[in-house]
Amino acid sequence: MKTKTASAFTVLREEDVNYVKSLVANGGPEEKDYDAFFQVLEQLDEKGVNEIRELLGPIMNEQTMVGFAYVKPFGYAGDYQIIDYIYQQKVNPDPRYSKWDKWYHEQHAAKAVRNRKEFFKDVLEKLDAASDTQKNVLVLGSGPATDVYEFLTKHPDSKLHFDLLDLDQRAIDYAKKKNAKFLDRLNFIRINVLRYKTYKFYDLIWSAGLFDYFKEKHFIYLVRKYLDYVKEGGEMIIGNFSDQNPSTKGMHAMLEWHLNQRSSRQLVSYAVEAGADPVNVSVDKEPLEVNLFLRVKKPSNPFRNAETFISWLDINNN
Ligand SMILES: C[S@@+](CC[C@H](N)C(=O)[O-])C[C@H]1O[C@@H](n2cnc3c(N)ncnc32)[C@H](O)[C@@H]1O
């Protein structure tokens, strides 16, 4: 096939076309190229994005992280496999692709995904250390469950039990295989989180990499719904990418990986709209501040026993 000359690209500047072509010929950007390549991506409009994809054609396939994210072999963005590749920092050893994969894993978005796994493990450690009795955790959109696997590998005697919900049976099969040693305390359920119903109460409800795909209406609906399943004294934590994510252009435009990125203020307002008292709502962040975590506590009711006793007295005295 005849290669298109730089001047045949109508949107990208000739020097940018030549630069990107040189990156492809060189098997991907080296560290010294990261800033310059970022600048090229930052200026892109819709037509420019199409031209960049054309230039990157040789690597926009399942052999690279960037291509896998774009092609979406599972039919949707953010499947369990790409997330686990990000955790593993998978690099294709083929020299045509490896520099692209290394570059991908250095992007803020990929680092923030790895950071959120560490954040969750930290939350689990604190929950586990706080009591000697069994604690129940519900995970919404559990994907590869690598976070749970790493936590249980480090704490095989943990008292935590997990219910893990995912819509994709392939994600559940993969996560079960990975967590084969721990299946006695894991309960996988294939269901849409919008439909799950339970009589159980959880000490912790966790979700990351899921609510970013929901519109405001569904986000608020789910917070209201799942707050009912949080035990008194328990907590719900929902991860959501920040609207300040520097990888936005690359993710949205180049990879067609669309997220509803949000500000801390928006996340708090959703929780309040869902019925949470603002004093129980806060927002945490991982070190890069790309992944935000909405935290909603359900206070324990110190007067519960007193109220029960008073109503018992009322009933028996009348
Ligand atoms: C981006 S992955 C995140 C996985 C995991 N939470 C993590 O951070 O490693 C999102 C997962 O949510 C699942 N998912 C998407 N929509 C869902 C829904 N409506 N109900 C249940 N699971 C869903 C997907 O199948 C996928 O495994």
Description of the structure:
By secondary structure, the chain is of the alpha/beta class. It has 2 domains: 6-94, no CATH class; 110-297, Vaccinia Virus protein VP39 (Rossmann fold, 3-Layer(aba) Sandwich), CATH 3.40.50. The chain is built from 13 helices and 7 strands. It has a 7-stranded mixed β-sheet, sandwiched between helices. Helix 7 (108-129) crosses helix 8. The longest helix is centred in the middle third of the chain and has 22 residues, at 108-129. It is elongated and about 85 Å long. The mean pLDDT is 92. Bound molecules: S-adenosylmethionine. S-adenosylmethionine (SAM) binds at residues 78, 80, 83, 141-144, 147, 165-168, 171, 192-194, 208-210.
Features:
alpha/beta; binds S-adenosylmethionine; Rossmann fold; seven-stranded mixed sheet; 2 domains; 13 helices; 318 residues
Give a short synopsis of this structure:
The chain has 318 residues and is an alpha/beta fold. The protein has helices at residues 14-25, 34-42, 46-55, 65-71, 80-88, 98-105, 108-129, 146-154, 169-178, 216-227, 248-254, 264-273, 304-317; strands at 135-140, 160-166, 186-190, 202-207, 230-241, 281-285, 291-297.
The counted number of beta strands is 7
Bound molecules: S-adenosylmethionine
Give the SSE order as H and E letters. Answer: HHHHHHHEHEHEEHEHHEEH
In CATH, what is the class of the largest domain?
A: Alpha Beta
Shape: elongated
Describe the biggest sheet? 7 strands, mixed
Write the CATH fold name of the largest domain.
Rossmann fold
Uncertain runs with pLDDT below 50, 5 residues or more?
A: none
Fourth CATH level, the homologous superfamily of the largest domain: Vaccinia Virus protein VP39
Radius of gyration: 23 Å
CATH architecture of the largest domain: 3-Layer(aba) Sandwich
